[in-house]
Design a protein that fits this description.
It contains three helices and five strands; from the N terminus they run E-H-H-E-E-E-E-H.
């Protein structure tokens, strides 16, 4: 699989304010869309990960919005991994419209078990979640 996964989306009306501008809070939701697409492409859909008893809640997030997106704008979510530790994975994201970066961010996830205790990432999971060699 490519170390960068691209998901394509379109701004829905429900994601906008009265002026047709997407709410900034939706960037975090779009990061989740990108992360889910990444996990599916890595052969690790969240559903299967959770069925095996592992969860990856967000422990930290950061982001910036450079330009607004409007109703019906098409955009891409570029997602890659920047860091993998024994219990932690850091995903990075760029939201692009027509090739321009309109937003970017990062989420940190801790691997936990069903009782919400941090646990080491299983070896097969760590092998599939490798950082991108260079930032795209």
């Amino acid at each position: 699989m490519s170390r960068v996964v691209v998901a394509r989306e379109r701004v829905r009306y429900a994601e906008t304010d009265r002026m047709g501008v997407a709410y900034n809070s939706h960037f975090l939701i779009w990061f989740e869309v990108g992360r889910s697409a990444y996990m599916r492409a890595a052969g690790l859909p969240y559903r299967e990960l959770e069925a095996a008893g592992y969860y990856m809640p967000v422990s930290n997030f950061a982001g910036e919005v450079r330009e607004s997106l409007d109703y019906d704008d098409e955009f891409e979510i570029h997602t890659w991994i920047t860091r993998v530790r024994s219990r932690q994975v850091v995903f990075s994201y760029e939201i692009r419209r027509e090739g321009r970066i309109v937003g970017r961010g990062e989420t940190t996830h801790v691997c936990v078990d069903h009782s919400r205790r941090p646990v080491a990432l299983p070896a097969d999971l760590r092998n599939r979640l490798q950082p991108a060699p260079v930032v795209p």
